[in-house]
Amino acid sequence: MLKKRILICLDVKDGRTTKGVKFLDNVDIGDPVVMAAEYYRQGVDELVFYDIMASARDRGPTLDLIRRVAETVHIPFCVGGGISTVEDIRNTILAGAEKISINSPAVRDPELLSKGAAIFGNQCIVLGMDAKRDSAMKSGYRVFINGGRVATGLDALEWAIEAEKRGAGEIVLNSIDADGTRDGYEIPLTRMISERVSIPVVASGGAGTPAHMAEVLTHGKADAALIASMVHSGDYTVGSIKKELAEQGIPVRL
Amino acid sequence: MTGIVDYNAGNIRSVELALLSLGVEYRISRTPADLESADRLIFPGVGEAAFAMQELKKAGFDVFLKDWARSGKPLLGVCLGSQIIFEHSEERDTPCLGLIPGSVRKFPASFKEKGLKVPHMGWNDIAWKNGGSRLFDGIPEHSDFYFVHSYYIDPADPSVVTAAADYGISVPCAVKYGNIEAVQFHPEKSGAHGLVLLANYCGASTKGASVC
């Protein structure tokens, strides 16, 4: 039986892991290479690295970081942030990443998803999407770019469907409303999108307890749950979370 | 020495790093001649079958792999490498290497109605078939391995299947055909159990590796 995956996200800025609330006020919480190794040891299923300042900068340090992580972490990991060309995708894969998450650049140039999938396979092209509640939108959610700072005219559901058609193999769906609040995932958003696409959906934003994760993996129909603060704070370990999920009958890799 | 076939098909860096962490002597090359002296080969790959076949031909690896299969030396196909050693893939109707009789098929469209996502992506447990394989020595049955694929292998002779995973159907995920073995999942991305499998193949020990 396929397991529900637990992903840990490390937001990286200038080579350090940071954590913010609703995309603001980021504070330094550690060395991403050391943290990745520790979460690997704890049994995390996948890691996600977001280079939150990458867009306008040299990507060299990020590639170096990926190389160092890949040396010790023998599970899949995804890299996002500032990847806007096929060449960026290639370099990131060659550094050792399994998947590439494309967010703002995919909105600006949707062809990037198609091109990336045609060359590297859809399994490695992940659509990163930041969505925010907006009653003016058909699905009730609007897509934002540039780290949640810039609104687009895209409807979240329509964009998810288009991204799948263009070759995305997975969607990491982040709720701006829920991000960093630790009050629970945005269940209606996650469920709506997961039901309408045939590729896996990773729920992101708002995890505070294993119960929140259980809720999004069942009612929210997510294939995987992404967490950050829960483990970065030291309140939980991957093991303690998985144990609780297993007790609630959710299939996890133990 | 273990040879790794590099034909511009995806993340082979992770295979290399897994062998490095096991302390296995390896050579990775885009030139068949460099790998002739290898004791065994790993044939990895992710991506699309037609593109991969084209790249293999460009480098002369198609002929090299067919000769290798006949030589009797061990060959391990991984993920896309486990698919294109069969005769044909439904992915863009691609004729493949034909080292093992059988086809590569797309997961049925009915999966969507059943709520099963394609690609089959994530960790799934595997059950031994036909007595399993020496590759699995030291790995408990029903251990989880990392999968990501939209097409699955369908050998003409079901007795070559050494392991299968449940995903809507019984998905053959490991085969043994003479000197050729293949795994659909990614041992290089499957944590401790994956490293054990690679160590078994390369005749190495997992002691000291970051297997967690």
Question: Which labels suit this protein?
Answer:
heterodimer, A: 254 residues, alpha/beta, TIM Barrel, eight-stranded parallel β-barrel, 10 helices, 12 strands, 36% helix, globular, B: 212 residues, Rossmann fold, nine-stranded mixed beta sheet, 7 helices
The secondary-structure element order of chain A is: EEEHEHEHEHHEEEHEHEHEHH
End-to-end C-alpha gap of chain B: 25 Å
Q: How much of the residues of chain A is beta strand, in percent?
A: 25-35%
Apparent shape of chain A: globular
Major sheet summary line of chain B: 9 strands, mixed
Q: Look at the structure and give the CATH class of chain B.
A: Alpha Beta
The portion of residues assigned to helices of chain B is 25-40%
Let me know the average pLDDT of chain A: 92
Low-confidence stretches of chain B: none
Our Rg estimate of chain B from Cα atoms comes to 16 Å
Molecular structure report:
The complex is a heterodimer of chains A (254) and B (212). With 254 residues, chain A is an alpha/beta fold. Chain A has one domain (5-247): Alpha-Beta Barrel (TIM Barrel). Chain A is built from 10 helices and 12 strands. Chain A has helices at residues 32-42, 60-72, 86-94, 104-108, 111-120, 156-166, 187-196, 210-218, 229-232, 238-247; strands at 5-13, 16-21, 24-30, 46-51, 77-80, 99-102, 125-133, 141-145, 150-155, 170-175, 201-204, 224-227. Chain A has an 8-stranded parallel barrel, surrounded by 7 helices. In chain A, helix 7 links the parallel strand 10 and strand 11 (201-204). The longest helix of chain A has 13 residues, at 60-72. Chain A is globular and about 40 Å long. Chain B has a single domain, classed as Rossmann fold, CATH 3.40.50.880. In chain B, the strands form 2 sheets. Chain B has a 9-stranded mixed β-sheet with strand order 2-1-3-4-13-12-11-8-9, with helices on both faces. Chain B has a 4-stranded mixed β-sheet with strand order 6-5-7-10, with helices on one face. Classes of the chains: A alpha/beta (254), B alpha/beta (212). Chain A binds chain B through residues 1-5, 37, 40-41, 43, 45, 70-72, 74-76, 93-98, 118-124, 169-170, 198-200, 221, 223-224, 253, and chain B through 10-11, 13-14, 17-18, 20-21, 46-48, 51, 80, 111-112, 115, 117-125, 144, 146-150, 166-167, 186, 188-191, 194-195, 210-212.
